[in-house]
Design brief:
Elements: E1 2-4, E2 8-10, E3 16-22, E4 32-37, E5 43-49, E6 56-58, E7 66-71, E8 76-81, E9 90-96, E10 99-100, E11 104-108
Parallel strand pairs: 2-11
Antiparallel strand pairs: 1-3, 3-8, 4-5, 4-9, 5-6, 7-8, 9-10, 9-11
């Protein structure tokens, strides 16, 4: 089970950190992803963190602004989002395989 939180409303240029707490499995054992679904759009991949020797990947639209990390002690995946833009407005989901959480809403507007 995956539970995201940390969403909210921020102005352009602001920052948010989204935690995703996992239960019933260890985030360190699996490839983990962040996805997002913008209004009236499909789900887009945002970032991935591989298991083992962790590597991180980012969509071009967020590269340099977002950072994906894991805290194995807390069994939590994070997405640190900086310099947020209105086009980042979406519901953000963490995902492992075909499983994903309920999502957390991020709104970026003036």
């Amino acid at each position: 089970r995956l539970v995201e939180s940390g969403g909210g409303s921020v102005q352009p240029g602001g920052s948010l950190r989204l935690p995703c707490v996992a239960s019933e499995f260890r985030v360190s054992d699996y490839n983990m992803r962040w996805l997002r679904e913008a209004p009236e759009k499909g789900i887009d991949w945002v970032s991935s963190s591989t298991s083992g020797d962790p590597k991180t990947l980012y969509a071009d639209s967020v590269k340099g602004r977002f950072t994906i990390t894991r805290d194995t002690a807390k069994n939590t995946l994070y997405l640190e989002m900086n310099n947020l833009k209105p086009e980042d407005t979406a519901v953000y989901y963490c995902s492992q395989g075909s499983e994903r959480g309920q999502g957390t809403k991020v709104t970026v507007s003036t």
